[in-house]
């Protein structure tokens, strides 16, 4: 049995976690209007008098609320904070970061809009009364981190009172995911559910729901032992009992978890950190299945298990180990499917369908574009891969589809879907491609870590970025700067630089200066530079020093730009680093707007390119798009479309298209065309001869000013996320950030530099 137990992802420091939550607008959510609110007319439509029309329509027919309001795509994540992860009862307010987190996961993974509501009461009746009247606002209610046994009463009562899905995620989400993982773990170890002996530690919301689902799937009740803080839940026990535990009490001599686990096949941990000891694991049956799902720290770590057993299948609730059994794999997709058919409830049929679809996904071959979500490793069904990872892009089509079908078949769908194939396509289109792209970049770099020079090492945001780079296991971060200044600045900012993998290099004191100076002089002596000019640049200018490090193999890539404007930084490094042979250096920006990703070029280098250069930019950008995982569809942009209106600038673009025709390039392109024709299928339909098979995903701009102006406007006014410009076509990886870059921007660029170092 394979035994990869090392942590497979990044761990984060407490400082990073706080900084992440505090940066920019505090918290993780904001509300964005979906309609224009600019003119008197907008106001009249959105508010009085126009708003009265949908009001009357909904009053007449409540189902119209799904047509005229957010209700159909809106879920409330509601908690009272009585069982926040495995941290215990820390109150409603303290639960807010988790609830905001669940809300953003709804959006990120399944495009479900969601809002967190923290209800400050531990009284079940008060809680029920607070939630029951919120029904008209939402398409579904996701209850979260409410402790047992109150959670059972609350959920059951709300399900009776409300006509929308009410789903306690810690119960059913967890049960569905662990059922999927367990179906596969049993298959891998050749076990039969009917004879498998299971011990579940934790008799709360998650534990009780899990064993109920397991028994419904085929586990024999007498083979399932439940434990809590008092030990085994046996028949006749009176201490710490309630009706939900009693329903699962068994006849047994075992009284402690250790006794219950002797010879057991499966451990389900839904309790607390450290509850499972190595000695207990030692006593389990051959090929034991250990799901240590307590968060944030599992009942036992994979490292501890690996020290004593080489035959265990190990899963945790965390994203930094293989086999993450966590309800994040369920709730976004389960609600997606339920909302899409306007289900009145989430019933057992829908839950079982979700569990089966999830289990099935892990058994399928992993196609190329999905392998990227697995740190570049193509996982194979087996001990280290019993369940897909949350970033698996297939989840968004497979799980909601299965849930929606089950809702229709079991008669709880108010709006059945007629064309399921089309629905599957619509689901895939909800994927956020850039997030997957960045994730893929990070995962690849983690497998092939790189040495990146952070040229402006004395700056606070650069130091933070370097620490984050190292913490995320992306490789070695080299901070260039004066040792004493870096350390002083770090101390003042409360940044701990004492980390393996983080180096400080002082250019002035480096023993490589002579070699770097010679190298620079060799390149610049016929371009007006004296030897002493080169010496000064190497000693005093960090971009020159950093570029020499990379050129001469002392580092793999550079990130710079926070202290110097873009073109100056680019000129600095271009003195030392050339274009790749046969390539042209260009800037590409990745624009993410409303779930759509578009690459824009050239956003950095060519001021007013001629036709030949525009064609080169197109080729370079298409190659980059492919390396990023997109099949390029290029629009050669202008202010005109196919000859109208005529003008010199458009003629250059037309000529560039003819040049690409002659070069017989192997990607889709067409133009010249205006941006709306490139991006809007209705505008594109006016030109039936167009050679693009769909809206463009790469926009080639006619000149630098239009590229730069449009991407910056999109970022500032359009609410788009813009990454870049990324430098493409250089012989060595260099990325230049903008003057106001945040530490997270700098780490992204460092990761991209490291990624391209391996490409
Ligand atoms: N991976 C995942 O997707 C999920 C993981 N979880 C994790 O499961 C755990 C429980 O959550 P939840 O059910 O919502 O919480 P609850 O408060 O409803 O239940 C907690 C249960 O754990 C028991 N327990 C606590 N500490 C121990 C211990 N040291 N030994 C034995 N039993 C113990 C309690 O015993 P008693 O009844 O005696 O008080 C109680 O039965 C948390 O760590 C949570 O993070 C939860 C949901 C999803
Ligand atoms: C994952 C989750 O919901 C929990 O640990 O509570
Ligand atoms: Mg939870």
Shape: globular
Termini separation (Å)? 33 Å
CATH architecture identity of the domain at 586-729? 3-Layer(aba) Sandwich
What is the number of E strands? 21
Could you tell me the mean pLDDT?
Answer: 92
Approximate helicity band: 40-55%
CATH class of the domain at 586-729: Alpha Beta
Tell me the CATH superfamily of the domain at 586-729: Isocitrate/Isopropylmalate dehydrogenase-like
CATH topology-level name of the domain at 586-729: Rossmann fold
Q: Give the neighbour order of strands across the main sheet.
A: 7-6-5-8-9-10
Q: Tell me about the largest β-sheet.
A: 6 strands, mixed
Number of helices: 31
Q: Can you list the ligands bound to this structure?
A: NADPH dihydro-nicotinamide-adenine-dinucleotide phosphate, pyruvic acid, magnesium ion
- Contiguous low-pLDDT stretches (5 residues minimum) are 1-7
Task: Please identify the structural class as seen in this structure.
Answer: alpha/beta
Q: Percent of residues in beta strands? A: 5-15%
What is the alpha-carbon Rg in Å? 29 Å
Keywords: Metal-binding, Multifunctional enzyme, Oxidoreductase
Protein name: NADP-dependent malic enzyme
Domain Malic enzyme NAD-binding: 171-408
Organism: Mesorhizobium australafricanum
List the helices and strands and how they pair.
Layout: H1 14-22, H2 40-46, H3 52-60, H4 65-68, E1 74-79, H5 96-110, E2 113-118, H6 124-132, E3 140-143, H7 150-161, E4 166-168, H8 169-188, E5 198-201, H9 205-217, E6 224-228, E7 231-232, H10 243-246, H11 257-261, E8 266-269, H12 278-282, E9 289-292, H13 302-308, E10 313-316, H14 331-340, H15 348-363, H16 368-371, H17 395-409, H18 420-429, H19 433-447, E11 450-454, H20 460-471, E12 475-480, H21 483-493, E13 502-505, H22 513-524, H23 531-540, H24 542-551, E14 557-560, H25 566-574, E15 586-593, E16 596-601, H26 611-627, E17 633-637, H27 648-663, E18 668-673, H28 675-679, H29 681-684, E19 698-700, H30 704-717, E20 721-728, E21 734-736, H31 743-757
